[in-house]
Specification:
By secondary structure, the protein is mostly helical. The protein has 6 helices and no strands. The chain has one domain. This is DUF1569 domain-containing protein.
C-alpha cells in the first residue's frame, strides 16, 4: 500500500495535482475541482493535528471495526460520506486551493510520522501514524481519480 510518508508516493500525488485544471470535471460527486482541493486541505489539517472535528455517534459505535477501509489496499467506494466539518460547498479559487494543498502535503511528508496527530480520526478513531500515512494517500488518490488524474 502506498503511503504519503514515502517520498516517491508524495511526488506522484503532487504531480497528479499539477495535472488538474480549473475546468477539470468530476466523474462522480458534487464538489467542483477547487472545492475538492479545499476539502483535501481541510483533511490534511486533521492529520496534522491542526483541526479536531468531534467524533460522531456512528463513528464511536462502529469506527474501530471498519477503520481498515481507510488504510487497506481496496479502493474507496464512490460517493462515500465525509466528515461534515470538511464538506466544502462554497466557491473556492482553484490556484489558491491547489497551492495550499500541495504545501500541506509537503509539510506533512517532511514532518514525518512522528509529527502525525495522535488525536482520533473523527470517524475511525485512534490511528497509528502508518495508518494515517496510508489513509492520506488513499484519500488523495480517491479524489484525484474522481477528477480523472
Amino acid at each position: 500500500m502506498k503511503n504519503i510518508f514515502n517520498h516517491l508516493d508524495t511526488e506522484e500525488i503532487l504531480n497528479r495535482i499539477d495535472k488538474l485544471s480549473p475546468t477539470s470535471q468530476p466523474q462522480w460527486g458534487k464538489m467542483d475541482v477547487a472545492q475538492m482541493l479545499a476539502h483535501c486541505s481541510l483533511f490534511q489539517d486533521i492529520a496534522m493535528g491542526n483541526s479536531f472535528p468531534p467524533r460522531g455517534w456512528l463513528g464511536i459505535l462502529i469506527g474501530k471495526f471498519v477503520k481498515p477501509i481507510f488504510y487497506n489496499n481496496k479502493p474507496l467506494s464512490r460517493n462515500m460520506s465525509t466528515i461534515p466539518t470538511i464538506l466544502v460547498a462554497d466557491e473556492k479559487e482553484f490556484e489558491t486551493e491547489r497551492e495550499k494543498l500541495k504545501q500541506k502535503i509537503i509539510a506533512f511528508q517532511n514532518n514525518g510520522p512522528e509529527k502525525c496527530t495522535t488525536h482520533p480520526h473523527p470517524f475511525f478513531g485512534k490511528l497509528t501514524s502508518e495508518q494515517w500515512g496510508k489513509g492520506i494517500y488513499k484519500h488523495l488518490d480517491y479524489h484525484l481519480k474522481q477528477f480523472g488524474v
